[in-house]
């Protein structure tokens, strides 16, 4: 089966099937990712209200788990069709996915039971906090384009750079490009996969760079980040090649 990559995300990535297969349930993997990313994004060291979700796909994970003081959120992805799903959802159009289980789980993580009216209020807040949906490309030195001059307080990125890079050298460079969007003292919360080489969405195979934790640590150091905390877990997922691999979530500061 051909291995898809890069611009294939614009026309061959079935965004709604991706959401259903990878984020449609509270699997052990998703509980690990959501709860650790939640803890890191809510860490008291993080300051400011400007958050970038880099390589967001049609997924609202970062926005759901970010504390409500992030009122200036930019969601960015290579694929306009991924952003279109978010745009349609923001406009109140029907899409083939509900985030309620993730919203409720995130609420429970902060010891707040989410009743139906709480859920509606959170969704309304989330829709006003996401200020822009923009195209991005991790390959570019200025990944949001030359006109984007604002810096962010926090960058959240989840399973993007390992999908984008074809070599460890590229991974290092792409992380450096994304790091340019943070000032010194800004924070990065990153989720990713180790030892994964591909993943399947709608019977199509998408490339993932085989990475070790030391590749990730080197890349962070090279991009002037200091790791503050990280967690990883071994998991099994039939949609992954190989099915057994590891995932990590980390918090880093740009020095
Ligand atoms: C595996 S999906 C992960 C999406 C989402 N963040 C999540 O955790 O569910 C990888 C995402 O990276 C995006 N992507 C791939 N190459 C990219 C690049 N060069 N620059 C920016 N985004 C890219 C794809 O469009 C896709 O949405």
Question: Could you give the topology of this structure?
Answer:
Layout: E1 3-4, H1 8-11, H2 15-23, H3 28-41, E2 50-54, H4 61-65, E3 72-77, H5 80-90, H6 100-109, H7 116-129, E4 130-135, E5 154-158, H8 161-164, H9 168-179, E6 187-194, E7 198-201, E8 204-207, H10 213-222, E9 225-236, E10 240-241, E11 244-254
Parallel strand pairs: 1-8, 2-3, 2-5, 3-4, 5-6
Antiparallel strand pairs: 6-11, 7-8, 7-10, 9-11
Helix pairs in contact: 3-6, 9-10
Gist of the model:
The chain is α/β, with parallel strands linked by helices.
Explain this structure:
The protein is of the alpha/beta class and 255 residues long. It has a single domain (3-254), classed as Vaccinia Virus protein VP39 (Rossmann fold, 3-Layer(aba) Sandwich). Helices cover 36% and strands 25% of the residues. It has a 7-stranded mixed β-sheet, sandwiched between helices. The chain has a 4-stranded mixed β-sheet with strand order 1-8-7-10. Strand 2 (50-54), helix 4 and strand 3 (72-77) form a beta-alpha-beta unit. The model has no long low-confidence stretch (mean pLDDT 94).
